[in-house]
Amino acid sequence: MNNLRNIIKRPLLTEKSTVLREQFNQVVFEVDRRSNKIEICQAVEKIFGVKVLDVRTVNFEGKRRRAGRLKVKRNDWKKAYITLAPGQKLEIFENA
């Protein structure tokens, strides 16, 4: 990947991600489907200035839906669970 900002698409703020952040110091991001764990780790460390211990990824297949007579498919996407080092926090999640 060329640009680190293209790897991390957006943070995911759900009930599950909030529990993970509070109990296990993990944050959840939607990431580019073509990125691997090493690229995700480097992007988070350089963009946010934190130490990353572990990265787990999950691939999601887009759901098939109907739009009138047409059958359409939503985009496939990838989610990354990122474990931060003890004492590390991300400011974007603290104010949410």
Protein architecture, described:
By secondary structure, the protein is α+β, with helices and mostly antiparallel strands. It has one domain (4-86): 2-Layer Sandwich (Alpha-Beta Plaits). It is 31% helix and 36% strand. The protein has 4 helices and 6 strands. It has helices at residues 4-7, 15-24, 37-48, 91-94, and strands at 8-11, 26-31, 52-60, 64-67, 70-73, 77-84. The strands form 2 sheets. It has a 4-stranded antiparallel sheet with strand order 1-2-6-3. Strands 4-5 form a two-stranded antiparallel sheet. A hairpin with a 2-residue loop joins strand 4 and strand 5 (70-73). The longest helix is centred in the middle third of the chain and has 12 residues, at 37-48. The chain is globular. The protein starts with a helix and ends with a helix. The relative contact order is 0.24.
State the main characteristics:
single chain, about 100 residues, alpha+beta, Alpha-Beta Plaits, four-stranded antiparallel sheet, two-stranded antiparallel sheet, 4 helices, 6 strands, about 35% strand
In short:
Helix content is 31%, strand content 36%. It has 96 residues and is of the alpha+beta class.
Instruction: Count every helix, treating DSSP H or I runs of 4 or more residues as helices.
Output: 4
Proportion of beta-strand residues: 35-45%
How many structural domains does the protein architecture include?
A: 1
Category by helix and strand content: alpha+beta
For the secondary structure, the number of strands is: 6
Q: Which sequence of SSEs, written as H and E, runs from N to C?
A: HEHEHEEEEH
CATH architectural designation: 2-Layer Sandwich
Q: Enumerate the spans where pLDDT stays under 50 for 5 or more consecutive residues.
A: none
Please describe the biggest sheet, giving its number of strands, its sense, and whether it closes into a barrel. 4 strands, antiparallel
